[in-house]
Amino acid sequence: MSSITVSSLVLGSLTVEVDGSDSTLALSVLGTAPASLTIELGTPGAQGDAATIAAGTTTTLSPGSLATVTNVGTSSAAVFNFGIPSGLTGATGPGVPIGGTDGQVLAKIDTTDYNTQWVTPFALQVRNQVRNETGAQLDKGTVVYVNGASGNKVTVTKALATGDATSAQTFAVLLENIPNNQNGYAVTSGLLENLDTSAFAAGTQVYLSPTTAGTFTATKPSAPDHLVYVGVIERSHVNQGTMLVRIQNGYELDELHDVAIASKTNNDLLAYESSTNLWKNKSFGTLGLLTSATAASTYYLQTNPAGYIDATALAPYLTIASAAATYQSTAGMSAYLTTATASATYLATANNLSELTATASTARTNLGLGTAAVEPATKLVPSGGTTGQVLSKASNTSWDLVWATAGGGGGGSGADVQVFTTPGTATWTKPAGKTMALVKIWAGGNGGGSGSRLPSTQARSGGAGGTAGGFIQMFVPLSTLASTVTVTVGSGGAGGASVTTDSTNGNQGGIGTPSIFGTFTASQSSTAANGGTSAAVTGPTYSTNTFNLLGNFLPNLSQVGGGGNGSTTTGAAPTNSAFDRYMFDLPTGGGGGGGNIANNQVSGAGGAGGGRFAAVSGASGFTTAVAGGSGATGVPTLLLPTTGTSGVASYFGGTGGGGGGYRSAANGGSTAGAAGAQPGGGGGGGAASDNGTPSGAGGAGGAGMVVVISF
């Protein structure tokens, strides 16, 4: 610390300035006496920060006010806020008017320069830039369609309503002339001005012309020309005409969203198909309709049959005169007896004249029937009886018969027979007092295949017949069986479905299911009967039999009885061996369906179903012959084929159903194969058909069966 002393002997003021300081010290001497001032000097401090200046806010003040600057900071860190007055409003001059809202556009109020206002816009037209590469200029007002693209622009050319190619893509009307290889604008929708519309009255609807390319006409086009709506004339004038453009292309039938057209042919019809909710084209045959030609070849005209058949063809048929000479008319039948009047007047022959009382003996003698002392009142089988009973002599008198339970060997009680024929599951109950059972099991037969449906220019065969169900039989000690045994009766296979689509092969027949008794199973062949094709179809073959004579099985047989071949002429019988058909209780296969060779307008009969041979000469215990179902007969001219007959049910195995018959060029001329008989008969094959006619379905296989004979 240092000090400075200053003395003054005079009146007045004294200023002292100290080096290194920005201050001065003033001393006033007021008295008369000498004065002195002592100043103590401290140590100099460090240099301080420099002052700063920053701009703050800027505020617009009202016109005519003074500008302001305000320091809202500190002396060393100043922040200046500025207030700047706006200018006075000047006179209106050319330019954009004030105001307006988002999306508005500037529009003229009148023809005065700069007299504009903000308005909400509306679309007068929708335009697109297009390119002309046609080789010549396209003029304003030309109706064009898109025919490609070039240089990121679609190319256009003149539209014409004569076909889909030049009208379906009709796009716009040209807004301006477009020279070749140049771009220009076209109106796709909206107002088109300054056209020559003098040929049309205001309000006229105009369409794309089918006669002059690129022009429009007031005449509405009709098929086969295409309908394309162009727009409506708003003003009719030679050069200031206006048209409101609104292009609308017409639709083809198969362009509608609920119409499905595929592979259309002449004379197809449009029909609604509920399974798909669509309208589809379908042929006469698919819809089950007849053409006049088909009707004339199949049916007689009720009012004039001579108009369809000549007198020679009608010779075998009765006329009214020949029928009257041979048969009694229904009106004249009143003179004949009915069942009621006959029973009230005459004796029933089956009653052996028992209605007569005192004259019965004389009447029988006169008729050569003997007397009452010689014979009973009836020769008929007596009524009553229960399942399994047999007819037995009650005395030595002729025809004295009663129903009795058959006795077992050595005087034991009769056999217990339980038969199961309904497909599904059942229960066998072990009978009391028996020791052995003979079990016979037949599986369900296979269904026949359906016929093909092909053009008459190629061969078409019927379906193959189905194989017969497998069969086994065995002797089983009842001691090895439980008190009840589950029995399953197999179902017959379904026949192949009729073909309703042209140029299609037939469908396979279904496979029958096995029949089961406890642990013993009669299986079925897994080979399905094929549907018809353009060639003959080979039926499934029968399998080789196996035997086991040493154990409980006598014999053990399975999967026998093949199906008949489906043919392009006459269906074949099944391929069963002779040994199978007369030795054992084997079912047999179905006959094949009939068909036709290419361009051969004759009929084809179905093959007969498999049957049973007659008994072997000198052998006892064998059955007599059992015929299979007959094949349907095909007829060439007027009549439709018959239906194949079903097989015959028998405990010796059901026989096969007959094949369907074929007749060319006739609705209903292809019949179904007949069903195989229970147990296990194979279904017959369905007949072939021409395109336009449903083919014959395959016949169903016969159901299986289980028979248990306990003794």
Descriptive report:
With 711 residues, the protein is mainly β. Among the domains are: 2-37, no CATH class; 125-250, Virus Head Decoration Protein, Chain: A (Beta Barrel), CATH 2.40.300. The protein has six helices and 33 strands. It has helices at 292-298, 311-314, 320-326, 339-345, 360-366, 578-583, and strands spanning 2-8, 12-17, 24-29, 35-41, 52-61, 68-71, 77-85, 105-108, 116-119, 125-132, 143-150, 153-158, 170-174, 182-195, 205-208, 216-217, 228-235, 241-249, 259-260, 269-273, 278-282, 389-393, 401-405, 416-420, 424-429, 436-442, 453-454, 471-477, 484-489, 515-517, 520-522, 689-690, 705-710. It has a five-stranded mixed beta barrel with strand order 10-12-11-13-14. A four-stranded antiparallel beta sheet has the order 24-33-26-28, with no helix packed on it. A hairpin with a 5-residue loop joins β17 and β18 (241-249). It is elongated and about 185 Å long. The N and C termini lie far apart (152 Å). The model is unreliable at 408-412, 544-559, 577-583 and 613-644 (pLDDT under 50).
Identify the notable features of this structure and list them briefly.
711 residues; mainly beta; Virus Head Decoration Protein, Chain: A; 5-stranded mixed beta barrel; 4-stranded antiparallel sheet; 33 strands; elongated
